[in-house]
Amino acid sequence: MSGPTGAAPLLQMTLRVEHDIFVVRQRGREVAAAAGLEHQDQVRVATALSEVARDLLRTVGGADVTFIIVHDPAGGGRHLRVDLAPVRPLPDGHYEPQSGAVARLVDMLGVVTEEGDTVVRMSRRVPATAAALTPERLAELHTELGRNAPGSAIDELAAQNAQLIAALDEVRSQRDELAVLNEELAETNRGVMALYNQLTEELEETNRGVVALYAELDEKSAQLRAASESKSRFLANVSHELRAPVTAIMGLGRLLGDSASDPLTAEQARQVGLIRSSASDLLTLVNELLDLAKAESGRLEPTWAEVDLRPLFGQLRGTLRALPTRPDVELVVEEPPAPATLRSDEVLLAQVLRNLLHNGLKFTERGEVRLRAERRGDRWLLAVSDTGPGIPPEQHDRIFEEFYQVPGATRVGGTGLGLPYARRLATLLGGTLELSSEPGRGSTFTVSLPTGGA
């Protein structure tokens, strides 16, 4: 199927089993986001799609689902259209959603006949402010959506459940020979199904809330904030409790290696060194977790003051040059142009730049790591560039995720928390942290800050 303009489908998938409802909902939200719909409209489309998918799965056994971007030659503008072709004929050729409020979530919901097939069709207008979708961009989105398989916990759980069910069918055919294995598999399957049913109930409850009253999203947002606060408190508490024993381990290691203590054998000295090195790495992780927890919890508040970038850059130049680096890597800190002042928190701003510079020094094997400042209108652009291996475009967003490091990169010390923490601090200071990079051409991290503070 294609739209009036003959556009190729962005994504096609099948709806045959209950798990597909989760996937259809998730992919619907992904396609809506790729098409440029705002967040609330993404939720509306996903909710309406999952409700219609549930109806069709129950009444006619499923459907073939197609996502298309179409241009309306009559009314102008673009629409995200979703066609659900039932696998069996609809009763009386008519479809009425179980919840009448579903139709209010989209611009159009109805049954059409196209090329002799009965299709349940829904559509939502794409905002005029969304980026233009050229044929090249549509082809790119089609490739990305087809390549990116669902990666949520529900998908992994469903895949495991499907494997267990297939194994259970095979075990049933060999019940006499494999009775013990069948019992173990059945027990495991019951546990998986119980968790799967719990997730299903939660999704249905969320859908009913969205369909009945969209304002309930505010309550869900509050619950998400509470969950985030709980996670931050957990990280803060665990980090705080771990800091004391880790510090004690480092202290004991220093005492063991002290010249005033009983001399150690070469092997003992090496093992004590490994203990101290591991404890130091763990203390770094604990400190980064604690910093990240403070930033997430909102307890980290900037102390606003006039900050002169010249002494700040001089301090960074002096402290980072004292760190051990590769001999083929040069640290260059350019003098910022005068007047080099802005309203910010000097300590937090220094942490952001220090994290970026330290990250560049870790991953650059030869060449330079450079810090420079540029004034553009009412904003300062602070850029940290390096001549490292570069980062593929598909990894640009993921490197700002906690504990993530680019696959295939040179393995060096680190926890994957520095960049997420730096971006949170930049946001806290009223600015942004953006990345420009490609493989073989190095990377540039740019912090954009208002001159007058947030």
Automatic annotation (TrEMBL):
* Principal cellular location given in the protein's record: membrane
SMART domains the UniProt entry points to: HATPase_c, HisKA
Q: What is its EC number?
A: 2.7.13.3
Give yes or no: UniProt keyword Translocase.
no
What is a single cellular component term in the Gene Ontology annotation? plasma membrane
- Show the coiled coil region(s): 154-216
Compartments where located: Cell membrane
Where the record annotates domain Histidine kinase, the positions are 237-453
Instruction: Give me the segments passing through the membrane.
Output: none
Q: Which reaction does it catalyse?
A: ATP + protein L-histidine = ADP + protein N-phospho-L-histidine
Keywords for this entry?
Answer: Coiled coil, Kinase, Phosphoprotein, Transferase, Two-component regulatory system
Q: Which InterPro entries match?
A: HATPase_C_sf, HATPase_dom, His_kinase_dom, HisK_dim/P_dom, HisK_dim/P_sf, Sensor_HK_Regulatory, Sig_transdc_His_kin-like_C
Pfam families the UniProt entry points to: HATPase_c, HisKA
Instruction: Write down the top EC class of this protein.
Output: transferase
Any single GO molecular-function term of the entry would be: phosphorelay sensor kinase activity
What protein name applies here? histidine kinase
Which organism does this record belong to? Answer: Micromonospora citrea
